[in-house]
User: Fold these one by one.
Assistant:
Number 1:
Amino acid sequence: MKSKGRTFKEKAEFFSSFNIFSFFPLFFFTLFIFSSCSLKPAQKGITIAGSTSIQPFADQWAEVFMAKYPGRLINVQGGGSSAGIQAAMTGAAQIGMSSRELKPQEKVLQEFIVAWDGLAIIIHPSNPIEDLSLEEVRKIFAGQIVSWKEVGGPDHNIHVVTREEGSGTRGAFQEMVMGKERITKKSIVQDSNGTVREVVAGNPYAIGYISLGLVEKRVKAIKLDGIEPSLENIMSRRYRLVRPFILVTNGPPTDETHDFIQFILSSEGQELIKRQGLIPANLVMTEAKVGQ
Amino acid sequence: MGNRTTMKGTESKEKLIRLFLLATALSAISILALISVFIFTEGLPIMFRHGFKKFLFSLDWYPTEGHFGLLPMIIGSLMVTVGAMIIGVPLGLAGAIYLTQFSSKKVRMVVKPMIELLAGIPSVVYGFIGVVILVPFVRENFGGPGFSVLTASIILGIMILPTILSISIDSLMALPPAYREGSIALGATEWQTTRMVLLPAARSGIIASIILGMGRAVGETMAVIMIAGNATSLPRTILDPVRTLTSNIALEMGYASGEHRQALFATGVILFIIIMVLNTVANLTSRKMSR
């Protein structure tokens, strides 16, 4: 007993001799070392900026790339497709991300389609509607069609679910479906693909839109103008709500940017894209091929 | 001699402690000052650029197109808060009166800590319960999409209940027993005693509890985002979805950039002003009433 008490006291003395403040110089020293470490590769790093819908995926690409090539630094920023294209043109970013096709005056940039993403219009599985035209979807989201009866469904108000202002998915939907029409202010707003799906899964009269990769059994993805959002229809581009994920560079890519883009287009990068729920780049016909 | 030096020692020690406590108090205030300076410098420029009127009285919130009308959110915040008070205050007061005046000590010992436990549940859990249980219930029984002013008010009312209840109980318990005994001795019934003697005497504490509850209702974000539906239109009935000022900031902060981001800080400015006004009014009335 006695010896136990003594060791305990000794221990206490031992620890109290380590004054907390004596650690401070050490702490600052480590801080200094770390900060100088992280500064060095920043000079060599590249910046990628643009579409907020690509951003979360690009974060992962950059992570995997940097793990594979230690010492490389890739800085991913948002800002929106147009801002990204602008940044690539002015040189503010080495690579711009765009989740829409380039406009003719933007074609001076070199573009690399790295993946495709589909948008699915989803409703509750108990809803008898199977098929809507693009026009009907637009009118529903604009608040001009307010009852399911008007499109051949049950006599009940439609509960429109949309994403928050600024979201890339909302931007794509606005562009591909709504055009100049505004999404009704009365729509329920959710802040992620997951919560939109959750609301639609729990409400028999709801309609929403989410990324195609996230559709599951609890919701029904409807046909658009009679065309099912299947991989086949997307590959042939018969299903219209598909958008490319494009990386753009001003002129031919330099060594560093070239490495990154090649990594994403490699089988390893494309495998990663598949795992992220996107559609690999080579599976979909580009606009030019559809035209032929 | 020795005695005097120790006296001096304690005095200087006390001075030190006083200084230390003053520094803590000031640091709390300086954080408040920092927050206000930050919000105002980020939010005010855009309000000047577009005009206060547009922010306060326009119904159009299309931040990516340059329309920053916050009126639906201001009214939404007020509606949801008033709704929460309508549900939370009577329930909380009734519970406090029952537990202090009419229940046995045993019941109080069990019930009060359990209700206070409610205050410790994270708001996201309330939101989740709201989405899973209350939203479908409201949709099926009252109509509308279920995400509504009503749903948010009910959940917020439950969330502010423990604040109102426990502070009201404390202020009722703090009254001298002579108040109650004297009133009963004069022939008043228990209910008359409670209504005419005890409640007026405990007024300032009860009002403080209501103010604190209101503060929580105005500031609550997570649960409201999950159950209120967040539509930017002005709600016509209590079954329509609604967006509050706090949820407007939290919802759109993720992707906002440029003017959109500044407009969210402007939302913060307006929220800040509303909370200041509410607090001042509440403080003034409580001071007036306790006189």
Number 2:
Amino acid sequence: MGLLTNLKDSVSRVTDRLFASDDPKRIGIYGPPNAGKTTLANRIARDWTGDAIGPESHVPHETRRARRKEGVDIERNGRSVTIDIVDTPGVATKVDYKEFLDHDIEKDDAIRRSREATEGVAEAMHWLREDVDGVIYVLDSTTDPFTQVNTMLIGIIESRDLPVLIFANKIDLDEADIKRVADAFPQHETVPLSALEGNNMDEVYDKIAEYFG
Amino acid sequence: MPEATPSDSTTESQNGVQIDLISGSRMEGLRSMEKIRLILDGVRDGNIVILEEGLSPDEESKLIEVTMTEISPDEFSGIEIESYPHEDAADQSFLDRLMGRESTKKLTVIGPANQIETLHKDDQLISALVSRK
């Protein structure tokens, strides 16, 4: 891509944001499979609209299509922030249908699920390049955050100059290690939470309003 | 003399694992999709591809997307990828960042997910176990 095209794109991105500041921001919820993205999306949607976004499951790649909840009004400190939440499929570089067989899923269904999962990951990457204004990156704080997928995705988000918050999820579990998550990406703010139990959601909403409002 | 391609250096894959080390200057002349095609064609043949200077974030994003479209049951389950930045990658000027000239200098190892397993990774070493098809 030429320098002028790059410069034009950069200027366009800035002006788009300046002149569209009153429009709801589309906030993509990204992260690896099983980090708790849909649980978080449902928690936010239920807290502020009363509706859920999609089914939660311990089976990887349960979310195989990006799901959107529009017009979520979050009120903090006397002012209201409106966002559109995009719950995306967990990003991976590999999908093997045999992994689904371990969850008592029949082979035909496992193959169908894996095919849908690959389409979902491709869709999530497309959303990231084209259609989100900010990112909530969800990590399971009981697992090692130093993975190539996490590093690549954070790099992609940074290269697009998108505001990003890192959420260290599942702090209700004994094995949770918030410091390990914070140390993995020290250039970004890390917010600990349990989307399942609703722990520390006040800080979560404060930070969403601060970063995406 | 015609330029060698990774596939020219034929190795009977049954007898071993082919490793393609691709220089930064070789990749420099390619468009994004040509780079991704070069990588995925090699990986789908069961080769380990090592890039001297890696891909840009945008190219990495497209690599994931194209990989997903090519996954097929019992045939190709995706890729394993590991990389770490060269020390000089952090020395980017403000103008470079402003103009979108991201440094992509990071040694990158890519292989078929069903044949490569990362054993260890730190700032200075990637250790991988590679099995035959």
